[in-house]
Amino acid sequence: MAPKKKGSTLEYDDVLKYVLGDFGKYQIYCFWLLVITAIPSGIQAFAMVFTMAETDSWCRVPDVGNISPQVCVSNLTADCMDLVKNLTIPKEPSLDSCEGGWKYSQCYRYNISSHEITYSVSNSLEGVSSNVIKCDHGWEYDRSQYKETVSQKFDLVCDRYHLNALLPSIAFVGSLIGSVCAGIFLDKFGRLRGLILSVALLEIFGIVMIFSPNYAMFAVCNCLLFAVVYSIYLAGFVLVTEHVGPSKRPLAGNLVAVFYSVGYILISVFAYFIREWWKLQLAITIPNAIFLIYWCLIDESPRWLLSVGKVEEAEKIIRKSARINKVDVPDDLFDESWKPEGSMNGNIEQKKVMVEDEEIPPGILTLFKLPNLRKEMLILMSNFVANSIVYFGLNLNTSSLGGSDYLNAFISAAVEIPAYLIATYLMEVPFLGRRLSLFATMILSGCGTIAAAFVPPCGELTWLRVTLAMIGKYGISSSFAIVFIYVAELIPTPVRSMGVGICSTSAFIGAIVSPQVLLLKTFWAPLPPVIFGVASILAGIMVLPLPETRGKKLPETMAEGERFGQKRNHRDYKGGYGEIRKVEINDNCLDTDGGVHVELVDM
To answer: Quick one: residue 594, left, alpha or beta (phi over 0 = left, psi -120 to 50 = alpha)?
Structure first.
């Protein structure tokens, strides 16, 4: 037997289609083990909604223990601490309509001591200095929902308030780093090695982060944690889509996203029962060690092994898969002579392709040099930025909706599952397709988000605010699922990975920006959701000039990509790439030796 070396014509899709089957017992086994790797990614990614939650705070008064007995006499008040706050903490205007226009200051207190207080039934301060000073003895925190958060641990309030919003942005920088490094590692050293290494690093960074003595170390560990969290998601996604056949690949990709949302649902439940951030982080980190046994349970991707010339390893896995699926492997499968019946290798019949008289070189620069592709890329990049800003902004803003943070986060996560599934259906509706489905879901998200911004987060209309926000979340989750399919279908094959990578990078930029947008609520409470809504609507309108891809042959060359969706054919392209010619390939084109000869015909 002469095994095929790197660069041979053996395609794993052919092996799946004509030998193993797209979704046999072996593929089902790998599928279910791998899709659940998205759960810890979802848990870790959205744990910060709770671990970094903002809580109400006020200045710690140095001798509050001596003040309380003087003012809380004869049980005149049911809540002694509220009375002490009223006497020791000044009030300031509030942008929150639920606080009656005033709130206790977070950064200032009265310069007062216990021996200066004379209490009266009218709660007035008699003979007490009204001088106001900055908090000089630390802060007290409202611990009714959270016993301890990262913000409380490092006192991220007042002059350090922006540092709390900076943590999610730093985390998303880590995701961006992870996307680049993981992509390189997975392609060079293998998908399974990348998955196992990422899980091991998750255990290390997750535990070290808990014991961080200061903000800087915590931020660095959190950044590295998010880098490996994304690596786990990417490795699992690539493995599951490469183990199954082409007909099941869309289903596999969508279910990975569904299990990611399951992780978001689970962290909402865990956080409800574990109210201290470090205990929660420990609880969601240590159990992930179980995925280390995947080194013994899961095989490396045969597709990757074939691509790097490790044919003998790929052969072992393929034959193992065949035994489990109870199918026979052709004796000549790994010989150069094997050609599956009915495949492109063995049946060339009336195939029409487009070739360039002078080939347009693929590459990032070419992608932005051709006018039609440049327009499509700029629109798609803008759409990814908008999707990411809105998606992560809404997730991080659930605590501002009113009601229970845990219930809001649970509903926000649960909405994603039907959003992904319904989006898959909408894309195949003939009169909607990819383009109008993306347009409709982004408009829906924008309208729901803006409407929720103007409903008070308290009182009898809290349910309406949450409902409108969830409509916005449903829309943006659906659009995110659609746009990933859309970009992969619009970009030509030679630069498809680069195009999707550029758009994914744009999405991380949006994620990094979204926590900073939430800071604008200090100027006007509805401003962040209004920005999210407007961004979603504008991005939705921008996709209307794009061509529809449903049911269309995908562009295989740069020239086809440039021509795709245009109303008329362009013979010449700016930049001197030559003219497009047509080639018809049929049985008459076959030479006696099995080769193909073609004749160029002007279009």
So the answer is: left
Residue 266, phi then psi, degrees to nearest 5: -65, -40
> Left if phi > 0, otherwise alpha if psi is -120 to 50, otherwise beta: which for 123?
left
Tokens found for residue 238: 């690539």
| Angstrom distance (rounded) from CA 145 to CA 153 | 15
Instruction: Round to whole Å and give the CA distance between 455 and 403.
Output: 13
Task: Compute the residue count for the chain.
Answer: 603
- What does residue 523 show for φ and ψ, rounded to 5 degrees? -95, -40
User: Mind listing the pLDDT tens digit for each residue in 207-228?
Assistant: 999 999 999 999 999 999 999 9
**Model-level pTM?**
0.79
Q: Say if strands 108-110 and 102-104 run parallel, antiparallel, or are unpaired.
A: unpaired
For the chain, give every domain's residue range. Answer: 1-54+153-344, 57-141, 377-554
Hey, what CATH topology would domain 377-554 get? Growth Hormone; Chain: A; (1.20.1250)
Q: How many CA atoms lie within 13 A of 216 on its CB side?
A: 0
Cα(23)–Cα(61) distance, rounded to whole angstroms?
66
DSSP assigned state of 240: H
* Domain pair 1-54+153-344 / 377-554, same fold: yes
Q: Report d(CA 90, CA 196) in Å as an integer.
A: 54
Per-residue pLDDT of 243-294, as tens digits, reads: 887 777 777 777 888 899 999 999 999 999 999 999 999 999 999 999 999 9
Cα 492 versus chain centre, distance: 24
What's the CA gap between 258 and 408, in Å, rounded? 18
Reported as a single tens digit per residue, the pLDDT across 145-166 is: 899 999 999 999 988 988 988 9
Give the whole-angstrom CA distance, residue 25 versus residue 437.
Answer: 35
CA angle 250, 255, 259 (to 5 degrees): 155
Using CB atoms within 10 Å of the CB of residue 7, give its burial: 0 to 12 exposed, 13 to 18 middle, 19+ buried. Answer: exposed
CATH of 1-54+153-344, one of 1.10.260.40, 2.40.50.140, 1.20.1250.20, 2.60.120.1200: 1.20.1250.20
Q: Residue by residue, what is the 3-state secondary structure of 146-214? A: CCECHHHHCCCCHHHHHHHHHHHHHHHHHHHHHHHHHHHHHHHHCHHHHHHHHHHHHHHHHHHHHCCCC
Between CA 278 and CA 428 the distance in angstroms is 45
